[in-house]
Prior knowledge:
- Chain A is of the alpha+beta class.
- Chain A has six helices and seven strands.
- Chain A has two domains: 11-109; 119-267, Reverse transcriptase/Diguanylate cyclase domain (Alpha-Beta Plaits).
- Helices cover 60% and strands 12% of the residues of chain A.
- In chain A, the strands form two sheets. Chain A has a five-stranded mixed sheet with strand order 2-3-1-6-7, sandwiched between helices. A two-stranded antiparallel sheet of chain A has the order 4-5.
- In chain A, a hairpin with a 2-residue loop joins β4 and β5 (224-226).
- By secondary structure, chain B is of the alpha/beta class.
- Chain B has one domain: Transcription Regulator spoIIAA (2-Layer Sandwich), CATH 3.30.750.
- Chain B has three helices and six strands, in the order βββαβαβαβ.
- In chain B, β4 (62-71), α2 (73-91) and β5 (96-102) form a beta-alpha-beta unit.
Amino acid sequence: MTPDLQPPEDEPEFSLYAQERAVIRQAEEMLEKLDDVTRGVRQLAQAYRNGYRETMRLVRISDRMQLDLHDANRTLSLQACELTSLNETLLQEIERREHLERELRRIASIDELTGLHTRRHVLELGEHEYRRLARHQRELAILLIDLDHFKRINDTHGHAAGDEVLRHVGSLFRASLREGDIAGRFGGEEFLAILPETDLPAARQIAERLRNCLEQSVIVWRDIRIRLTLSIGIATTVVDEPIERTIARADQALYVAKRTGRNRVQVELADAEGADDWEG
Amino acid sequence: MERLHRAATERSPHLDFDFPNRCLRIEGESYPEDAAAFYGPVLKALETFLCSPDPLPPESPLVLDLRLSYFNSSSAKALMNIFQMLELAASRGLSTRINWHYHPEDDAMLEFGEDFREDFRFADFHLCEVETDLAG
């Protein structure tokens, strides 16, 4: 602002106070302009205030949402941890069950006392072996074995002694049979051996060896020396005959072995004899 | 003044500004990819409506129903712009009511409503608890 202190040229008449009036007028004009500036600054302050309030509110809202997000994250982490531990428990449970299943299968397939296959399992294995060999037109021999006068051992020395005898026979079978032969406990003191790809003469040889082994061995139980013998019936498979039939023929041969004096190996007869009752 | 309608999408709310009946409504979740693109035309339309000489006889109030389950910061800014315009209109004599709906279990929405309410002197700002969940 350049102060113009000269009296206006269009002043009609000279005044003694022209100079002062001009100064006053200019001072008033400056005040008006100052008012304008003040108004402008006020508006600016108001705008800043509004903006400031909005920003504060936005930050509050954002903080609140972040808090929720953080909570949600923490919950998720906890849930993930829980899931992991649940998963571990589940895995342990699966392992436990698998172990149990293996154990059950073992119990179902292995006779606890003798370590031989159970009746059910030896029949399964026999069936499988029979079908495999039938495809190749090969023979299979079956030995049905019964301990002679086993009942007397139980009656004389008790069942614990009987169990020891069965254990001994089991390990004897496992030691004497060839690899690939299948041995199982068929009943109380009855055993079944399946000899794949074995003809009658070879089967007889193996049976004789078994019989001889037991005859020669002495079973010691609590300082008692127990000796016993066994009888064996042998049969070989015929094409297209169910394995049960072969076992039945071996059973008939066993019956003959028992009836003709025990401690014997008997090969199946050409024509089967009648099966009378016999004492084991 | 024509009615402005936007169907809800995954990230933007259902919006229905029924200017002829003075019923405005925003519902759902609001976190649009481009908040300016979504709310820009809405703000413009509202401004046009509020500045038009005498939109309707004054006896029926202008009502804005808000029922949001989530909104992001950009949407919050847009809401504040809307609130500012409504408050200004209310200060000039337009009867204005804002209903802020929130689920009883949604503490955050209640707090946001309480926060927004502080700025209103002329328009009525109501907090309304609603049990039912938003559909979709």
